[in-house]
């Protein structure tokens, strides 16, 4: 199955009503700039639409981005946005893990995929940053664990994930 067919399959299974199609994903006082990944070559799932407020037991990040890198890997990017002055690293890690768990169900079998979880925030304490770097904060995905990258609110995703270019 070629790349565009895989992305179209993901779009169709998730449903167009749950997708995000602009270049700046914003929640409250934080945003992620998605320019650099063509709108035709990506799928951005707004998990707040998939799991509306009031659903109990759902610990999800804001969105999940699917795209292919230059060598053909499907890159899955759970994105959490924290615009406040303090970040609870354990909570953010759980939300990113929830986004990765959601995404794994939409990857066709046989497609090599890599997870790149990102926390966009306005800064965090050293203690919270250390917590984020502990092994228990890593995001499990496809039998591997992935470290959470951090970026400032408003940063370009292409600068945080060099494989986009």
Give me a quick take on this structure:
The protein is an alpha/beta fold and about 160 residues long.
Question: Please, could you describe this protein's structure?
Answer:
With 165 residues, the chain is an alpha/beta fold. The protein has one domain (3-164). The chain has 5 helices and 10 strands; from the N terminus they run H-E-E-E-H-E-E-H-E-E-H-E-E-E-H. It has helices at 3-14, 47-50, 89-104, 126-133, 157-160; strands at 24-27, 30-33, 42-46, 63-68, 74-82, 113-115, 118-121, 139-141, 144-146, 149-152. The strands form 3 sheets. Strands 3, 4, 5, 6, 7 and 10 form a 6-stranded mixed β-sheet that branches. Strands 1-2 form a two-stranded antiparallel ribbon. Strand 4 and strand 5 (74-82) form a beta hairpin. The longest helix is centred in the middle third of the chain and has 16 residues, at 89-104. The chain is globular and about 45 Å long. It starts with a helix and ends in a 5-residue tail after the last helix.
């Amino acid at each position: 199955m070629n790349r565009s067919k895989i992305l179209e399959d993901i779009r169709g299974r998730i449903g167009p009503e749950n997708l995000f199609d602009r270049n700046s994903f914003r929640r409250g006082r934080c945003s992620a700039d998605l320019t650099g990944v063509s709108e035709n070559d990506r799928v951005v799932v707004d998990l707040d639409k998939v799991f509306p407020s009031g659903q109990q037991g759902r610990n999800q990040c804001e969105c999940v981005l699917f795209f292919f890198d230059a060598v053909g890997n499907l890159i899955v990017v759970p994105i959490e946005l924290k615009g406040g002055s303090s970040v609870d690293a354990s909570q953010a890690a759980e939300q990113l893990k929830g986004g990765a768990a959601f995404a794994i169900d939409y990857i066709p079998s046989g497609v090599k995929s890599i997870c790149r979880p990102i926390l966009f925030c306005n800064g965090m304490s050293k203690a919270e940053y250390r917590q984020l770097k502990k092994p228990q904060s890593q995001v499990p995905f496809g039998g591997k664990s992935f470290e959470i990258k951090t970026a400032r609110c408003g940063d370009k995703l292409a600068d945080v994930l060099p494989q986009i270019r």
